[in-house]
DNA sequence: TATAATTACTATTAATTTAGTAGTCATTAT
DNA sequence: ATAATGACTACTAAATTAATAGTAATTATA
C-alpha cells in the first residue's frame, strides 16, 4: 500500500513551492537540496507536474519553478492521483468494475477495498496545499499539530 | 497504493476456507480453480499462510487445506499485514520514525500519511473473516450488501 | 555578445519487486 | 503399489520504479 518515491518527491516539492508562493521562482537545485531528492529525477518529476498544470517555470539564468495556481486551489488528492495514477487498492475496486462483479465471495472483499479507498480519498481530497502550508508553519513556530482522527 | 496479487490471492483463499470452516479440507487444486489463481503460486501462498498460523493442512491423498482457527478469530488486518508487510503508505509514517521527524515541511505531509494509515487500519482491523462469510452468504441469497461509509 | 546558469527533452540503465514456473521429495488413502 | 496430494527449494520472467546521462534551448548579466 506504499506510495512511490516519485509521489513523495512531487508532494514535498509542491509543498515547498507552496511555501514560496508569490515569492518568485525556486531552482531545481534548491528544491533538490531542500528535499534531498536526486536532481535529475526531480527534473523529470517537475516536468510531469508542469504538464499537469500544477507548476510553471521560468527558463534561463535565475530561472526556476513556481506554483501555477494558488495553494488553496490544489488538493493533495489531485496531486497524488495525477502522479500516482488510480489509488484504488485493487483496480477492480473502482465503481465500474465493482458494478460488474459476479463473484460473490471476492465481492465481499471488494467491499472492503472500496471502503479503504473511500476512507483514503476523504483524507487526501479534503486537504489543500494552503492548509499544509499553515500546518508546516505552525510546526515551525513550535506548535506541534498532530492530527489523530480516531 | 495497490495491494499485491499475492495478498489478493491469500485473502480470497482464506475467505474460501472460511466458507468451508469445519467442513473438511479443500485441495490446492480446487482453491486455485475457484479463485482463478495459478496453482504453483497459490501453493507458495498457502505455505506462507501456514507458517503464519492462518491455515493448516493434511498431506497425502484426499489431503488439502483448512483454516487453522475460527473465522471470527482472524481479522483482515492480521492477514494483510502478515502477507503484505507494513501497510504504511510511507515507511517513515510509522510511529517511531514519525516521532523522530525533524523536517517540519515533510512532517506536515507525514501527518497525512498517518491519517491515511489510521483510516485504513480502522477498516481492515475491525472486520473478521466470519463477518466476510456472513456478507458473502447474504450476497448469494440476493441481498446485496453494499457498504458505503460516507 | 560571450558566458554561465538554468530549464527541456529523450534515451538509457540499474535496481527492486512482483509474479509465475519447474522439478523433486514426502505423505497418505485406497 | 499407485495415484493424489502437500512440502520444499530454486529459478526465471516480467513489470515497475528509481536513477543517470547527455545534449539542446533559453535567458540574465557582465
> What order do the helices and strands of chain A follow?
HHHEEHHHH
CATH class of one domain in chain A: Mainly Alpha
Which structural class should the secondary elements of chain A be placed in? mainly alpha
Quaternary state reads homodimer
Task: Please give the radius of gyration of chain A in angstroms.
Answer: 18 Å
Quote the average pLDDT of chain A. Answer: 88
Poorly predicted segments of chain A: 93-100
Our estimate of the beta-strand percent of chain A is 5-15%
Instruction: Using the coordinates shown, work out and report the CATH topology of one domain in chain A.
Output: Arc Repressor Mutant, subunit A
Most extensive chain-chain interface: A-B, 48 and 48 residues
| Coarse morphology of chain A | elongated
Number of strands of chain A: 2
Proportion in helices of chain A? 55-70%
CATH 4th-level superfamily of one domain in chain A: Winged helix-like DNA-binding domain superfamily/Winged helix DNA-binding domain
CATH architecture designation of one domain in chain A: Orthogonal Bundle
Q: How are the strands of the biggest sheet of chain A laid out side by side?
A: 1-2
Please describe what this structure looks like.
2 copies of one chain form a homodimer. The first copy, chain A, is mostly helical and 150 residues long. Chain A has a domain at 1-70: Winged helix-like DNA-binding domain superfamily/Winged helix DNA-binding domain (Arc Repressor Mutant, subunit A). Chain A contains 7 helices and 2 strands; from the N terminus they run H-H-H-E-E-H-H-H-H. The first copy, chain A, has a two-stranded antiparallel ribbon with strand order 1-2. In chain A, helix 1 packs antiparallel against helix 4 (76-84), helix 1 (5-19) crosses helix 7 and helix 2 crosses helix 3 (39-51). The first copy, chain A, is elongated, with a radius of gyration of 18 Å. The two termini of chain A are 21 Å apart. Residues 93-100 of chain A have low confidence and may be disordered. Chains A and B meet through helix 1, helix 6 and helix 7 of A and helix 1, helix 6 and helix 7 of B. Chain A binds a DNA duplex (30 and 30 nucleotides) through helix 3.
Amino acid at each position: 500500500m506504499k506510495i512511490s518515491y516519485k509521489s513523495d518527491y512531487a508532494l514535498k516539492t509542491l509543498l515547498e513551492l507552496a511555501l514560496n508562493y508569490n515569492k518568485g521562482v525556486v531552482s531545481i537545485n534548491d528544491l533538490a537540496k531542500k528535499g534531498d531528492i536526486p536532481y535529475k529525477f526531480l527534473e523529470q518529476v517537475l516536468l510531469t507536474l508542469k504538464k499537469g498544470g500544477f507548476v510553471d517555470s521560468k527558463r534561463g539564468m535565475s530561472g526556476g519553478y513556481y506554483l501555477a495556481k494558488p495553494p488553496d486551489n490544489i488538493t493533495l488528492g489531485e496531486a497524488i492521483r495525477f502522479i500516482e495514477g488510480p489509488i484504488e487498492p485493487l483496480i477492480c475496486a473502482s465503481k465500474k468494475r465493482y458494478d460488474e462483479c459476479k463473484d460473490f465471495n471476492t465481492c465481499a472483499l471488494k467491499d472492503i477495498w472500496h471502503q479503504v479507498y473511500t476512507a483514503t480519498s476523504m483524507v487526501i481530497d479534503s486537504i489543500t496545499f494552503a492548509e499544509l502550508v499553515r500546518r508546516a508553519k505552525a510546526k515551525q513556530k513550535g506548535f506541534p499539530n498532530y492530527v489523530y482522527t480516531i
